[in-house]
Design goal:
The chain has 199 residues and is α+β, with helices and mostly antiparallel strands. The protein has helices at residues 2-35, 64-76, 140-143, 149-160, and strands spanning 37-48, 51-52, 80-91, 97-99, 101-108, 111-118, 122-124, 128-139, 167-179, 182-185, 190-196. It has one domain: Immunoglobulins (Immunoglobulin-like), CATH 2.60.40.10. The chain is elongated, with a radius of gyration of 24 Å.
Length: 199
């Protein structure tokens, strides 16, 4: 009976020790993610109705053929837009940081056009960084169905370069770390703002 009690106590101590180690590991994973610095690197591969606008740093206006292509898309009310949002994650820690997924929300001129989740997992090396690409695409008329015709026209004019006012892109992200099969989110959303200039 005494041997049985000692064995049970030994097993309990092993379990408690394992549980304690797991708790410390979990706390470490969360802390490393919270210590990471996230920044908006920029916008890549911006296209509107199949017209390549590059990174949006110089929306200087479209050529004749492109204007015809845009006019045709407008007539058909089928205006696809796609872009890659580039996020830089820097890990200042002496151990790698894990990123299991990321929620995102993207607004253009204050209008929510993209929302979703990037489920790709990343390992950010110790004292290193990782560039994360969020490929986004939608159809403007559907995405802006609740917006007025003036707002839709205004955004199209800015993207095409007809209106020289900068386009404001707001990116909100929420990173997650996976611990014991559960996803633990970064506290709150990280928000970044970039203006696409017209020259």
């Amino acid at each position: 009976m005494k041997k049985l009690s000692i064995s049970l106590l030994f097993l309990f101590l092993i379990f408690a020790s394992f549980h304690s180690c797991e708790t410390i590991k979990q706390a470490g994973e969360i802390t490393r993610l919270k210590d990471c610095n996230f920044s908006l690197e920029g916008i890549n591969a911006l296209t509107l109705a199949g017209i390549n606008l590059g990174n949006g740093s110089n929306l200087s206006g479209m050529e004749g053929g492109q204007l015809m292509q845009l006019a045709n898309a407008l007539f058909q009310k089928n205006l696809p837009i796609s872009l890659d949002v580039m996020i830089k994650a820097e890990n200042p820690n002496t151990k790698p940081a894990m990123l299991s997924k990321m929620d995102y929300l993207v607004l253009i001129d204050g209008m929510e056009l993209f929302t979703g989740q990037n489920t790709r997992q990343y390992t950010i090396g110790a004292s290193n960084f990782e560039t994360i690409a969020l490929p986004l695409q939608t159809e403007l008329f559907k995405a802006m169905s609740e917006q007025s015709k003036e707002k839709i026209t205004g955004l199209i004019n800015k993207l095409s370069g007809k209106d020289k006012t900068p386009v404001e892109v707001t990116v909100k992200i929420k990173p997650y770390v996976s611990i014991g099969g559960a996803s633990v989110p970064y506290p709150g959303y990280l928000t970044f703002v970039q203006k696409l200039q017209n020259n």
